[in-house]
Amino acid sequence: MTKINQHHIPANIAEHALINKEQYQKDYALSIENPEAFWADKGKIVDWITPYTIVKNTSFDPGHVRIRWFEDGQLNISQNCLDRHLEKRADQVAIIWEGDSPNESKSITYRQLHQDVCQFANVLKKLGYQKRRCGGYLYANGS
């Protein structure tokens, strides 16, 4: 028999959590009983440029497995992860970077991150990248 380890959440932490045990159990039950309704509700957490009308589109046919979520919606990751936090959290830490050495770390505020993202976006524009194109950059060295 597999032993399940349970770790109880201290009351002083639980009282500041975004969800409690009862709400978690309600959400979990809904996710099993009606996943479309569950995910439609969770989809409202982010800001959509074009709101979705299709929550999920799945096929489990042999040789043709397909899983698509919110496929007709359009969102902007920068808007959801960065821009919408600037008004109230500009000077709060958005990212804590930890280097390989314990003495090496850097905290980046939402304002600093926004400036860096805008600067990098301008570099991409000068290189010919256009809106609605996907690019990625790994901010790995912390400088």
TrEMBL record:
<dbReference type="GO" id="GO:0003987">
    <property type="term" value="F:acetate-CoA ligase activity"/>
</dbReference>
<feature type="domain" description="Acetyl-coenzyme A synthetase N-terminal">
    <location>
        <begin position="24"/>
        <end position="81"/>
    </location>
</feature>
<keyword id="KW-0436">Ligase</keyword>
<dbReference type="Pfam" id="PF00501">
    <property type="entry name" value="AMP-binding"/>
</dbReference>
<protein>
    <submittedName>
        <fullName>Acetyl-CoA synthetase</fullName>
        <ecNumber>6.2.1.1</ecNumber>
    </submittedName>
</protein>
<dbReference type="Pfam" id="PF16177">
    <property type="entry name" value="ACAS_N"/>
</dbReference>
<dbReference type="GO" id="GO:0006085">
    <property type="term" value="P:acetyl-CoA biosynthetic process"/>
</dbReference>
<dbReference type="InterPro" id="IPR032387">
    <property type="entry name" value="ACAS_N"/>
</dbReference>
<feature type="domain" description="AMP-dependent synthetase/ligase">
    <location>
        <begin position="83"/>
        <end position="133"/>
    </location>
</feature>
<dbReference type="InterPro" id="IPR042099">
    <property type="entry name" value="ANL_N_sf"/>
</dbReference>
<dbReference type="InterPro" id="IPR000873">
    <property type="entry name" value="AMP-dep_synth/lig_dom"/>
</dbReference>
<dbReference type="GO" id="GO:0005829">
    <property type="term" value="C:cytosol"/>
</dbReference>
<comment type="similarity">
    <text>Belongs to the ATP-dependent AMP-binding enzyme family.</text>
</comment>
<keyword id="KW-0007">Acetylation</keyword>
